[in-house]
Design brief:
de novo design (two linked rop proteins); about 0% strand; rod-shaped
Length: about 190
């Protein structure tokens, strides 16, 4: 009888350990998913902030760059695409387009000494630079969160629980090769 009691207690303890491990991994996976969602929301906030700064920058620049119409139109189109993006992928694509357009705008602005000296332009350029830094940090945080989530659901024993929960690997943000090049500025 004593042996049967000991085996019963051992089985109950083993079941309890399995349940506790499952609950622990379930909660961990949910927390990591929430962190990814929050990280994406932070990126979205910074992209909106940048998009809100652009009309002011454009108004400042328009008076100086009357014959640089194509550059201004590209910035306007890219901003519009960012504001109407519905999915994270559309948001990423529009953001990449806007980043390229802004690089072109600042490269072209080098040809206008009066514009480069304009205090409004300098302030807006500074604000955009700070916003770009915040976007870069938010992207890094997002990718760190995705890495932690992916590591959790792809390693043992997390993979067992993730499969049961129907969780799949998340994709990190990547900058397309075309946007990695620095604009050429000539003096």
């Amino acid at each position: 009888m004593d042996l049967l009691l000991i085996v019963g207690i051992f089985i109950l303890l083993a079941i309890l350990v399995v349940v506790l491990v499952f609950l622990s991994y379930y909660n961990r996976i949910i927390r990591l998913e929430n962190r990814i969602d929050n990280s994406w929301a932070q990126i979205d906030v910074q992209l909106k902030r940048r998009a809100d700064l652009i009309p002011n920058l454009m108004e400042t620049v328009k008076g100086y760059m009357k014959h640089e119409r194509e550059v201004l139109e590209n910035v306007t189109k890219a901003r519009s695409a960012l504001m109407t993006a519905k999915t994270p992928q559309e948001n990423i694509d529009a953001d990449n387009m806007l980043t390229g357009a802004l690089k072109s705008l600042f490269a072209v602005s080098e040809n206008y000494p009066d514009l480069k000296a304009n205090q409004n332009f300098l302030n807006l350029q500074d604000e955009l630079t700070h916003t770009e830094d915040k976007i870069a940090y938010a992207r890094q945080h997002f990718n760190d969160s995705v890495l932690q989530f992916n590591n959790t659901i792809e390693t043992f024993p997390g993979i067992i629980f993730a499969r049961r929960m129907g969780k799949k690997e998340r994709e990190m943000l990547k900058i397309p090769e075309a946007n990695r090049e620095l604009p050429k500025v000539q003096f």
